[in-house]
């Protein structure tokens, strides 16, 4: 069943788009990521224009994150105070990100910049997470704990303006939390991602938030930041395709519920290892797209007789 997308200006199979939303929603509920780092490349692979994929992907992130966050809130695994501070930083970051997105689009470098950022960020974060999670699983096999060690305080815990986050059992400066939220806001606006693939590892390894609390809290922050990004993108660049967004949301809401249930059956180190593998697979796929020579190479003739 084909449906025409007015902003993307392309016809798509409804069932394929809904299935994409459901699959990414499942992963969102399972890992605590918005799923934007998956849905945006998937849409681009499906020939949706990158500008539309980036801006519209944020809508699917909202729906999937809300559905997953609701499931985690019912289980009591959401730190609302921590999420509120992250959101405050995300508001500022989103505004900066939309400005960067507009600038890159104006100079014609948006597609290349998005692809390179994806490969660098996903490859780095995925590799670090995989190495740590494998070590954690070895500790569990030897009778130890698979949770990230929380006794050691790094430089983050020596910063001023400290706040107490009771649900996460943290007493940490608000500065790195605000900075992290702002970074996620920028990534969300430029790359069309929820930023969970950065936020989740940062909360676990940098702030020392327990894995059980990270997932639900991450989804709340991602949901709010994605909503702000969508509004700014629609108003500034007019690249949000409502029809495409609705189809993605339809599948994402259902998938996130099943993902949250599945996530409750896995240990923290197992979740981190699976997320790391998923992140690396997406990075590898995008790297191949950047490296492989296109089958049809063409140039555009300029009015003065030159070539572009």
The assigned structural class equals mainly alpha
Task: Specify the number of helices.
Answer: 10
Estimated share of beta-strand residues:
5-15%
Output the radius of gyration. 20 Å
Helix content: 55-70%
Low-confidence stretches: 298-302
- Report on the biggest sheet: 2 strands, antiparallel
What is the β-strand count? Answer: 4
Described by the principal axes of the CA atoms, the overall outline is globular
The spatial strand order of the largest sheet comes to 1-2
Could you say how many structural domains there are in total? 1
Give the end-to-end Cα distance, rounded to a whole number of Å.
38 Å
Mean pLDDT: 76
Task: Summarize the helix and strand pattern as letters.
Answer: EEHHHHHEEHHHHH
Protein architecture, described:
The radius of gyration is 20 Å and the shape is globular. The two termini are 38 Å apart. It is mostly helical. The strands form 2 sheets. Strands 1-2 form a two-stranded antiparallel ribbon. The protein has a two-stranded antiparallel sheet with strand order 3-4. The chain has one domain (2-290). The longest helix has 32 residues, at 110-141. The protein has 10 helices and 4 strands.
Describe the protein's topology.
Elements: E1 2-5, E2 10-13, H1 14-31, H2 36-45, H3 50-74, H4 80-106, H5 110-141, E3 162-165, E4 170-173, H6 174-191, H7 196-205, H8 211-236, H9 242-263, H10 268-291
Antiparallel strand pairs: 1-2, 3-4
Helix pairs in contact: 1-2, 1-3, 1-9, 2-3, 3-8, 3-9, 4-6, 4-8, 5-10, 6-8, 7-8
Membrane topology: Multi-pass membrane protein
Family: Belongs to the 4-toluene sulfonate uptake permease (TSUP) (TC 2.A.102) family.
Subcellular location: Cell membrane; Membrane
């Amino acid at each position: 069943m084909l449906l025409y997308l007015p902003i993307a200006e392309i016809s798509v199979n409804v069932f394929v788009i809904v299935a994409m939303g459901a699959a990414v929603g499942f992963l969102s509920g399972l890992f605590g990521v918005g799923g934007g780092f998956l849905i945006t490349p998937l849409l681009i692979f499906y020939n949706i224009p990158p500008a539309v994929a980036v801006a519209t992907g944020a809508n699917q992130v909202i729906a999937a994150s809300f559905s997953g966050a609701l499931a985690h809130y019912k289980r009591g695994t959401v730190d609302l105070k921590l999420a509120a501070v992250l959101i405050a930083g995300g508001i500022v970051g989103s505004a900066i990100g939309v400005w960067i997105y507009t600038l890159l689009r104006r100079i014609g470098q948006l597609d290349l910049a998005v692809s390179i950022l994806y490969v660098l960020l996903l490859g780095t974060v995925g590799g670090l997470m995989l190495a740590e999670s494998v070590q954690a699983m070895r500790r569990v096999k030897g009778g130890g704990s698979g949770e990230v060690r929380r006794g050691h305080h790094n430089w983050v815990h020596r910063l001023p303006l400290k706040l107490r986050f009771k649900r996460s059992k943290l007493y940490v400066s608000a500065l790195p939390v605000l900075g992290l939220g702002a970074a996620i806001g920028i990534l969300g606006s430029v790359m069309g991602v929820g930023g969970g693939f950065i936020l989740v590892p940062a909360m676990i390894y940098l702030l020392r938030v327990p894995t059980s609390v990270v997932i639900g809290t991450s989804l709340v922050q991602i949901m709010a930041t994605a909503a702000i990004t969508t509004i700014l993108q629609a108003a500034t660049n007019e690249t949000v395709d409502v029809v495409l967004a609705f189809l993605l949301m339809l599948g994402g809401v259902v998938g996130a519920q099943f993902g949250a249930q599945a996530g409750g059956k896995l240990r923290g180190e197992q979740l981190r290892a699976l997320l790391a593998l998923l992140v690396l697979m997406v990075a590898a796929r995008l790297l191949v797209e950047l490296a492989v020579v296109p089958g049809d190479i063409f140039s555009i003739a300029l009015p003065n007789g030159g070539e572009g």
